[in-house]
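Summary of Year 1 activities. Much of the first year was spent building the evaluation harness for sequence design. The harness presents a backbone, in tokenized form, and records the residue chosen at every position. We chose the following record to illustrate the format because it has been used consistently in internal testing since the harness was completed.
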């Protein structure tokens, strides 16, 4: 499964380091930023699945950053958890008012933080919390590694499963073969692009008996798209 990608915005290096290690241990991929400016650069490079934002940052504060990001089209749906040393009720309210999805108060245990992150991801992006996803009667269950079409279990190979899970959690967008390789296999693996075509063919074959193969669409000159629209 793709690891949820967390953008960690914290100016104090030792705390950032501690959090990075803890989040890595919990299975997240982590990008670090020391201030709002670095955070924006990181967001422009790769949209995170969730942001962990320290309340007090030098320059633009964490709460101001979240307020801005929640107003921008590209970033408004990225969930944000505020990290704060402030425990006054007013500040909590303020954090939630600007659009933060949750907050944790220092000091907190990594375990508590992970529980908060999971809860937010489950609420906002069920596909990242390994929750089942269902589209047009096609259902994928990451936990049990099973796929159902109209209630019937399908036989599916491990690579086809990963591609299908990626597609079902990223529908209605076109991905090039290179992107699919990077996102499903990982960028450190050398595989030829036509390997993607081979697995897509196999995936379509799995989906054909139940009539779901049309969901996996070839976009000429661009790549593939998973779409419930024709
Ligand atoms: Ca700080």
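For this record, the design step produced the sequence shown next.
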């Amino acid at each position: 499964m793709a690891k949820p990608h967390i953008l960690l915005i914290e100016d104090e290096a030792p705390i950032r380091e501690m959090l990075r290690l803890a989040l890595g241990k919990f299975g997240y991929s982590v990008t670090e930023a020391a201030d709002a400016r670095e955070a924006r650069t990181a967001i422009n490079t790769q949209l995170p699945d969730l942001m962990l934002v320290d309340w007090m940052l030098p320059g633009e504060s964490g709460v101001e950053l979240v307020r801005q990001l929640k107003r921008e089209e590209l970033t408004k749906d990225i969930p944000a958890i505020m990290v704060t040393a402030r425990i006054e009720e007013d500040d909590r309210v303020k954090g939630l008012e600007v659009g933060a999805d949750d907050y944790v108060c220092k000091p907190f245990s990594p375990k508590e933080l992970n529980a908060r992150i999971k809860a937010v991801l489950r609420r906002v992006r069920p596909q990242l919390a390994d929750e089942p996803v269902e589209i047009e009667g096609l259902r994928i269950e990451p936990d049990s590694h099973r796929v159902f079409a109209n209630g019937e279990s399908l036989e599916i190979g491990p690579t086809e499963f990963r591609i299908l899970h990626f597609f079902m959690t990223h529908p209605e967008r076109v991905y090039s073969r290179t992107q699919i390789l990077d996102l499903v296999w990982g960028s450190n693996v050398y595989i030829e692009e036509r390997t993607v075509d081979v697995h897509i063919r196999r995936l379509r074959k799995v989906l054909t008996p139940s009539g779901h193969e049309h969901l996996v669409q070839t976009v000429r000159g661009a790549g593939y798209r998973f779409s419930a629209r024709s």
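The mean pLDDT is 89. Quantitative recovery figures across the full test set are reported in Table 2.
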